[in-house]
Design brief:
It is a single chain. The chain is about 35% helix and about 25% strand. It contains 13 helices and 18 strands. The longest helix is centred in the C-terminal third of the chain and has 30 residues. α1 packs parallel to α5. By secondary structure, it is of the alpha/beta class. The protein has a single domain, classed as 3-Layer(bba) Sandwich (FAD/NAD(P)-binding domain), CATH 3.50.50.60. It is globular, with a radius of gyration of 21 Å.
């Protein structure tokens, strides 16, 4: 079977590897002109890591992943410890340690595994057509490519999604801006083996360990969409937003090199959609379920898509259209639920209802870790990667 995948991100390349290993002829196209991942890093929880293990990349991912043994929340103003606990129950309940990873490292691993010779950059798709024998994509230079199926892993502003749905769906702004990047491990902020988060006033400053003695930091600042930001301003908006915060926060901010690693991203998501397939064309990853990052499942959900797509093409043989519909049926509800969980979590943590966020802060001060672990594992145990074996 000939397969075209639009998009060379985590979802597109992992799907490409899965289908390629089944013997299919897979080609990936992406509009970018060079491999430059968006965002500094990502959270690979156990369900996402299991997909990469399934693709034969267990040892490589373990080398790329940060050893995140603990989790802690601190008061943003005083630096006081609100709660601190081990993350080992996540591994015990799911059978797999989670790994934060630098996005560029993971992306390069997936590209190398798939084969750069099968990835064509600088190719912007502008149109899709199909008939009973195949699907054809047209690029902005007028050239075309035809395959048995087309998978659109073309991100939050997906052209493939527009085609599948027959209309444009607008995304929703979640009310905050996220700044993220990579810095050297900084134990003035938090231990090298800990996911550390400072919270106050609906804001968050957080860091996770990744390989290479680095922290992946992500900082949330509630505010309106569309505010001007000049990259020449560097961390000035962060210094303003977190003026007077605890010394650990000031130490982290001071360690940021804006020229090397600082991204600013407005956080938007997409209402859950049930339709992922139109004939021989399907969507995957952010194209199907653009999710706020508040439950850390965006990349993992894309990897789950690839897992299910690969399994179904390995086990069902009625027709490509039938298999794609089974993929939609298997994935839409689970992915949509994670979108809604991300929304609820975002609302709780960013003081859109101040009393709700204050109640969460109060709860953190008496938290033993049990409730937070339950939430993390709850996002994982319904994953198809667990095959019913994950423990609640």
């Amino acid at each position: 079977m000939r397969v075209i995948i639009i998009g060379a991100g985590v979802g597109g390349t992992s799907a490409g590897i899965a289908l390629q290993r089944l013997g299919h002829d897979v080609t990936i196209y992406d509009r970018i002109h060079e491999n430059k991942p968006v965002g500094a890093a990502l959270s690979l929880w156990s369900n996402g890591v299991k997909v990469l293990n399934w693709l034969g990349l267990a040892d490589e991912v373990a080398r790329l992943g940060g050893l995140m043994d603990r989790m802690a929340y601190y008061d943003g103003h005083t630096g006081e410890t609100m709660t601190q606990f081990s993350l080992s129950p996540v591994t015990e309940k799911t059978g797999q340690r989670p790994y934060p990873v630098a996005r560029a490292d993971l992306q390069q691993l997936l590209i190398d595994t798939f084969g750069m010779d099968r990835i064509h950059l600088g190719r912007k798709m502008v149109r899709i057509d199909q008939d009973s024998s195949g699907a054809t994509v047209t690029f902005d230079d007028g050239e075309t490519a035809t395959a048995d199926i087309v998978i659109g892993a073309d991100g939050a502003k997906s052209i493939t999604r527009d085609y599948v749905l027959g209309e444009r769906r607008e995304r929703t702004y979640r009310g905050y801006v996220n700044y993220n990047g990579l810095v050297p491990v900084n134990e003035a902020f938090g231990p090298a083996d800990q996911w550390t988060t400072y919270v106050a006033d609906g804001k968050r400053v957080s860091a996770m360990p990744v390989a290479g003695n680095r922290f992946y930091f992500f900082v949330d600042v509630p505010g309106p969409s569309g505010e001007d930001y000049d990259r020449a301003d560097g961390i000035a908006p962060l210094e303003k937003a977190f003026a007077g915060w605890a010394p650990g926060v000031q130490s982290l901010l001071a360690s940021i090199d804006p020229e090397q690693s600082l991204n600013r991203v407005e956080i938007w998501d997409l209402d859950p959609i049930d339709t992922w397939v139109r004939g021989r064309v399907a969507i995957l990853g952010d194209a199907a379920h653009n999710t706020a990052p508040d439950v850390g499942q965006g990349a993992c959900s894309a990897l789950e898509d690839s897992f299910v797509l690969g399994l179904l093409f390995a086990t069902t043989t009625v027709s490509p259209e039938d298999t794609l519909l089974r993929y939609e049926r298997a994935r839409a509800e689970r992915a949509g639920d994670l979108v809604e969980r991300g929304r609820r979590r975002s609302h709780e943590t960013h003081a859109f209802e101040p009393e709700v966020t204050q109640a969460w802060y109060a709860g953190l001060r008496t938290e033993t870790g049990e409730n937070i672990i339950r939430g993390i594992v709850g996002n994982i145990i319904e994953s198809p990667t667990g095959m019913g074996s994950d423990l609640p």
